[in-house]
Prior knowledge:
By secondary structure, the protein is an alpha/beta fold. It has two domains: 3-90 and 268-283, 2-Layer Sandwich (ornithine cyclodeaminase, domain 1); 92-266, Rossmann fold. Helices cover 39% and strands 26% of the residues. It has eleven helices and 13 strands. The strands form two sheets. It has an eight-stranded parallel β-sheet, with helices on both faces. Strands 1-2-3-4-5 form a five-stranded antiparallel β-sheet. Helix 4 links the parallel strand 6 and strand 7 (135-142). Helix 3 (87-106) crosses helix 4 (121-133) and helix 3 packs across helix 11 (266-283). This is Ornithine cyclodeaminase. InterPro entries: NAD(P)-bd_dom_sf (IPR036291), ODC_Mu_crystall (IPR003462), ODC_N (IPR023401). It comes from Sulfodiicoccus acidiphilus.
Amino acid sequence: MTPELAVEAAKVAFSWLIDKQVAQPKRQVFTVEGNWWGLMHSYGPDVFAVKLVNVIEGNKSRGLPTINGLVVLASSKNGLPLAVIDGPTLTAWRTAAASVLSTELVVGRSVGTVGIVGAGTQARYHYAVASGYLKVDKFLFTARTSHVKLASELGADAVTLEELMRQSNVIYAATSSTSPVVRGSLLRDDFHISSVGAHTLDSRELDDDVLKRASTVLVDSIEAVEAESGDYLKARELGKPIVELGALLKGQRVSRPTVFKSVGVAAQDLAAALLVYEEALRRNIGTKVD
């Protein structure tokens, strides 16, 4: 996967969604021995994909990954499997690509200063996709503590939350917080924010002032955020215009300040898996299984 390929996959996914060329039944969530498991599936032109993912907190003490999963891509015409792809890695790429695509559609590819709130996997992938696809003058990182090490590793600046809010043209919020971390009173007048954390109805990543100041709230899928986003519920309560990202690919225009709220949808996995599979065939890479 590359930043260009990841964003191209995002364009395919959200075009499919807005054109109703893809079906994505509601994701299924299970609690298995106290751990979260999720099953997401989608099918569209010629292909079907299913993702099984879990979060096993006890794996920390076992020296094993906390997040595990697989994406299986198959032909929807003959049912034969085409590829098995690492789920967490594909998810990280496609999530960051959606944020970067929202930036391109609203701001353009020259964006000034980008601030990333968080220091985990999504922070790393947002940096990777943004730095490889956009023209960024400066990256700023903030988090509780680990952002200092991450910023040093990536050649970025570690700053306070307030400094990041005041200086950034674009902000990517990728946190595990259940209460707001992005504060609208500190933001520039022309901000664009992508929020990929707080994906339950009783959690928030953006405070009320962010949503009050936003001219438009973009979402990956209205159906998805209605079921999973407290930030969306507040935006709707405030009467904010809600626009699906795919509409911008069809020519709709919005003006800043803007928010993009994403909880992730199965169509993103489908498109990303398809493009990774096609790229692997083109480059003759990957492991072939008979």
